[in-house]
Amino acid sequence: MGRKGAWLTGLLLWGLGLSVLGAEGLDEYWPLSQYQAMHPEQAQATQTLKRLVRNAPQPARLHQQGPMRIALISPGGQLSDYWRRNRLALERRLTQLGLDYQLQSYDKAPEQDERQQTQQLVTALAADPDYLIYTLDAQFQHKYIARLLSRGRPKVILQNITTPLKDWEARPPLLYVGFDHQQGSRLLADFFRRQAAGRPHFDYAMLYRSPGYVSTARGDTFIEQMRPQSNSQLRLAFYTQSDRASARQAALSALEQYPDLDLLFACATDTALGALDAIKQKGRQGKVQVNGWGGGSQELAALARGELAATVMRINDDTGVAVAEAIQRDLQGLPLPRVFAGDLVLVTPDTPKTVLQGLQARAFRYSDMEQE
Amino acid sequence: MPSSRPPTQRPLSSVLLLGLTVTLLLVTAILVFQTYRYARQAIDTQMEQRLAQGHHTMQLTMNHHLTHLAQQLDSLASQVEISYDLGTQSSWRLPLEREDEPKSLDFLFIAHQQTLYWQDAATDFFVPAGQLSSLIDQAEQRHRWYLVTLPDTESAPLILLLRQVPLVAPHTGQVLASLYGALVLNDNLELLQDLQREAQLQALSLEYQGLPLLTTQPQDSTLAKALSQLPAGTGLQAVGKHLLADRQPLWLDGTPTPLSLVAVVENRATPRLQEQYLHGAGIVLLLILAASWMLLLHLHQYTLLPLRRLVTWSRAVSAEDEPPPFVPGRIAEYNELGQALSLMVQRQKEKEHYFQDLLEFAFSPIIVWNARLQVQQCNAAASRLIGLTAQPGEPVFKLFPAEAQPALESSVQGQVCAGVELQYPNGRLLIWNMAPVRIGDQVTAVIAQGLDVTALKQAQRESLLARQAAEAATRTKSEFLATVTHEIRTPLNGILGMAHLLQDGPLTATAREYAQTIEESGQALLTIINDILDFSKIEADKLTLCLEPFHLPRLLQGVIRQLAPLAEQKPGLQLELQMASDLPEYLLGDAGRLRQILINLIGNGIKFTERGQVRLHARVLERQNQRIRLELTVSDSGIGIPPEAQRNLFQAFVQADTSTTRRYGGTGLGLAICKRLLDMMAGSIQLTSRQGIGSCFTVQLPLQLASPPAPSEIGAPQLDAPLSDSGAPPPEGVPSQLSTAPTADAGTAETRPDLGEPHILLVEDNRVNQQVALLMLKKLGCRVSLAENGEVALQKTLDETFDLVLMDCQMPVLNGYDATRRIRLSQPPQGRRLPIIAMTANDQPEERARCQQAGMDDFLAKPFRREDLGQCLAHWLDKA
C-alpha cells in the first residue's frame, strides 16, 4: 500500500482503533519482558553487558588480523539527535576499547524512498562489512534483514528495537539494541492517565511515524495502556512521513476536526515538533498537550519552554556504548544477551533541574565529549 | 603315564543357577528382541508415513504459496496504467509501491523482449548488478513458474522461481511487455520455516542438486552440520539419536526439480522404545535373577542340602572305620541311595575284613604297594619267609633284593611281572607274581604274591641229577643191549649159516635133525634178540618211524610169503590172505614196522594154531579225502586166550600163562612191541578170543594215501624193503587173496636162482661170517674174492672188476661205510654202478639210513639165510 493509501486508511478508519492497527501489530514480536522471562539463561549476560556499558571501558587488547568493517545505516537526518549521538558514542567507545575498525556510516533521510534505501543497503553490503548496524522501521526492510540473517554474513545488529522477532528465532541478529518503545509508551501512558483522572473526558489523537514497527510499538502500546481509562478516547490517528512537516499537517487536520482535543500523542521527536507547530498555528497553546519521545536536545529545550507536557528521556549514549561492547565481546567469543535495552526516564516540567542535568550528563557522556 | 589336568570343579548350585539363568535370559532376550524388532518396524513405518505426509504437506504449501504469488502478480499486472507512448517514457510510471507483506514476491521487473523497462527497489537487493538481463534471457512460457539460476560470484548460485505475465494495452489488446515476479530461494528462511511449520517438522533443509542451500537450523548447530553431511539418496536416514530425515525432490508443475527438501522429524518413539525395552529388560533380568535365586534357595534347601549331607556321610563312610549310621532325609531317592551305599559299604567292610584275614593268615607271602612304590600291606607270611619287614609308607625296595628293582618299577607302570625269581639273604628262594591294580587307566596299587620254592628247587635239582643218572644208565643199557645184540648176532650168523649149510650136505637123518634143531634154535634166539632190541629201543624212546610210500598189497603178500614156510611146517594149517577189493595200493607209512606187527601177529597165530587156518584180512574202514583208516584182522582157529590173560596180554614180558612160555617159547615181548608201535602210529589193537575156538587181533590205524613213486625211485636203492613190498607194483596175476598150502620147502637149495657165475667181492673181517658167506655164495655159483677190511676191498675194486660187493660195516682199518664212499669216488661216474650190499648185524632203520647215506644199494641183516642172499643177488645182478 502506498503512502497515500496509508494516509487515507488512517483518516478513514481512525474510529476502528486497534482493528486497523492489528495488521501491523506486535504479534510477530516478543515483548521484552516476555522474552526475558522466556530466556532466563540470558539474564547473566544482560547484567554483564549493562555493567560494562555503565562502567569505564576495559580494552580486551584483541589480536585482530585487520580492521573490522562496520556499516552503520541510521536515520541520522531525523530531527532527533539520537542517531547522531549514538554514532558518536559508538565510535568513541570503540576507540577507547582499542579496537581496530573502519566505520562506514550511511545516513538515511526519512524522506528517502524504498528504492534509495535499498540502494543504500546494497552499497553498504557491497563493501562486505563484518557488522551491519541497521534499523527496522519499515516493512520492506524486514525481508532484507531476514535474508541477511539467513545468509549469516554480515552480523546484523538491529538498533532501535528491543522486541525480538518471533520468525527470526532460528537465525536471530547478533543484538537487538535500543530503548524499549513499549516501556517508554507505558511511562507516558501512566503520566497521562494521571492527567486524565480529574477530567470529565480526555480525548487524544495519535500521530504515528511512518508505518512500521516503531509506530506500532510506541503508538499502539500507548493506546492499549490508555484503554482502561474510561474517560479517555482516541479520536483520530495519522501516519506521517516521520518528518516535522507531515506531522504538522496531520496535527492541523486533527485540530480542525476536533478542536477540543486534550492531547496530541507524538510517536517521535519530529512528530512532536510538528504537532507543536500546528498548535501554535491554531493558537491552542496551553489547551492541547503534546508529548515528546526520546528526550533529545530539542525535546528538552521544548520541555524547558513548557511546550511539552512530558517526554521519556533515553540515556542516549547507552546504545552506542552497548553496540561497541557487544562487538568486543563477540570478537572475544563471549556470550551476549540477545537484547539490550537502554534506560528510559520520564521527564516533565516538574523534574528538578539538577536531576535533569545529571540525567543529561549521563545520557550524553560520549556524544558530548566533543563539546568538552 | 601323563597326568591329565582335572577339570575345574564347581558347586552344583552354581551350575544350576548358571544354567537356569542363562536359559531364562536367552529365552527372554529372544522374546524381547523379537518384540522390539516388531515395535521398531512399526515405528519406522509410522515415521516413514509421517515424513511422506510432511513432504506432501510441504509440496501443497509450496504450491499454495506460488499460487498466491501468481495471483499477486496477476493483480499487479491488471493495475498497471499502461502508457501508450512507450517511446516518451524513460521508465514505467507504475503504482507498484505495493504494500509489503511477509509473503510477497521478492522483486518485480518489466521487460519486453530483451529490453528492461522497469525494476523495483528489491531487485537491486536480490539480483547482482548487471545480471538482470540474464534473467530475461532465461525467460520461459508466461503464466507458469520456472526455475532460474544465476551464477554467484561468492558461493552458491542464485536460485529463484520466476513467472511472467503479459502487460496488455486496455484498448488495443496489444501485449506491450511482461511483468516478471521472482521468488528468491537463497536465504529464504521464512519460506523454509513456513514449510517446516506447515509440515510440523523438526527441521528442514533445502538442497540444490544435492548441495545444501539453507536449513532452518542455526548454521553452527550440530543438526545443521549433520544435515549438510547427510548422504545422498532418498529414504529414511537417522540424524543423531532422536531425529529421522527423508529427502524428496521439490516438484514444480508436476515435474521434479533439482531442488530437494530434507525433512527432519523428531523420533522420540524409537529412543523411548529402546529405553523402555532396556528398562523392561533390566526388570526382567532382575526378576529372572530373583526367580533363579528363589529356585536355587528351594533347590538348596530341599535338594542340595540333603545331597551335601549324603556326600558328607559318604566321605565319613570312606574315611572312618566305624562310620556313622545313615540318617534318612526328605528325598526318597537320596534315602534309597544312602541305604544302598550303606549296604554296599557294609559288604565292602566285610570283604575288607575277609581280605585282611586272608592276607594275614595266608601261607603265601603277599605284599601290596602303591604307585609311588610305598608299602601298603605286608602279611606275616612275607615277613616270616623273607626275613625283612617294612611299615606301611616305607619304600617297597626294603622288602626285595636289589635285582627286583626293574620288576618293581615295571609293575607300577602297569606291567604284569610273573615268575620273578628272587634269592633272599636268608637263603630263601621265592618266585613272585606282581599284578598291578588299575582303576581306569591308572595303576593304583600292585599286589605281589610269592611262592616259596626253596624246597621245590632243591627237589628239582635232585630230581634232575637222578634223571640224568637214570638216562645215563638207560643209555648205557641200550648201548650194552645193542652191543650185545650185535655181538650175539654175529656168532649167531655163523651158527645159523653153518647149520643151514650143514643141511645142504649129506647127513644122516639124526645129524640132519640135529642140524635142523640147531638152526631152529638159532632162529628162535634171533627172534628173541630182535624183540629185546626193539623193546629196549622203545623203552629208551629211541625208536622212530620212517614214513615213506609203500605198496600195501605187496607188503601183505610179502608177509604171507615170508611166513608160509613156518605155516607149512604144520600139516593141517592153512595161511590165508584176504584183501578187500577197494584196498588202496600206495600208502604213506612205516612199512617195516607194519610188517613187523603183522609177522608178529601171524607168527603168533601160526604158533598157537595146530590145525585150521590163520587168516589175514585187510580192508578200509573209513576214507576221507586222502586219509583212510585201515583195518587188519589176524584171526586163527588156535587155542584161544583165557579172559583173565587177555587183560595183560599187551604188557611186556607177559604171556597168556607161564606154561605158554614153556610150551611155545617166546619172550612175551611181541604183543607189547606191537602195541607200542601202534601207539606211535596213532593206531590201536584189540583182541577177541575164546578158548578152544581161536583168537582175533584187530589192528586199526590211520594212513595217508600216497602216489606211486617215480620210475627213477623204483630203480633206486631199496634198503628198507629188500626183496619185498616196495618198488615196482606187484606182477600181474598176483591174486588179491593169497593162500599158502603146505608145499615143498621153497627156500631150499633146489630153488636157488640161476645167477650164472658172478664175481663177488666179499668184505668181512669175521672169519666165521666170512666162511658162512663164502660158502653160501659158492653154493649160489658165485666166484668170490675176499677182503678182510675196507681198505683191502677198495684196493681190490681198483685192481679187479666185480659184479657186486657184499660189505660188512664194522671192520678194522677201514669200516664199511667209509670204504663204500671211497669206492664210489674211485668209480667213473658214467660207468656201470657197482652194487654194494651192506651186511650188518644191526637190523635197525638208523643203520639202514646210515648205509644208504654211505652209498650202499641194499641191506642184508645178519644172520641171513642163503635164500635171502640168493634173492638179493638175483635182484641186483639181474638189474646190473
UniProtKB/TrEMBL annotation, chain A:
UniProt cross-references to SUPFAM superfamilies, sorted A to Z: Periplasmic binding protein-like I
| Location of the protein in the cell | Cell envelope
Matches recorded under Pfam families: Peripla_BP_4
Q: Which UniProt keywords apply?
A: Signal
- The reply on keyword Transmembrane is no
Annotated InterPro entries: Peripla_BP_I, SBP_2_dom
**Superkingdom as given in the UniProt entry:** Bacteria
Ranges for the Periplasmic binding protein domain?
Answer: 71-333
The entry's family comment says: Belongs to the bacterial solute-binding protein 2 family.
Q: In its UniProt entry, what is this protein called? A: Autoinducer 2-binding periplasmic protein LuxP
What phylogenetic lineage does the species belong to?
Bacteria, Pseudomonadati, Pseudomonadota, Gammaproteobacteria, Aeromonadales
UniProtKB/TrEMBL annotation, chain B:
Segments traversing the membrane: 12-33, 277-299
Domain named Histidine kinase is located at 483-705
Chain intervals for the UniProt region annotation (Disordered):
708-753
Q: Is the Nucleotide-binding keyword given for this protein?
A: yes
- Superkingdom per UniProt: Bacteria
**Keyword vocabulary terms for this entry:** ATP-binding, Cell inner membrane, Cell membrane, Hydrolase, Kinase, Membrane, Nucleotide-binding, Phosphoprotein, Protein phosphatase, Transferase, Transmembrane, Transmembrane helix, Two-component regulatory system
In this UniProt entry, the residues modified to 4-aspartylphosphate are 808
Where does this polypeptide localize? Cell inner membrane
This chain's protein is named Autoinducer 2 sensor kinase/phosphatase LuxQ
Instruction: Identify the species of origin.
Output: Pseudaeromonas paramecii
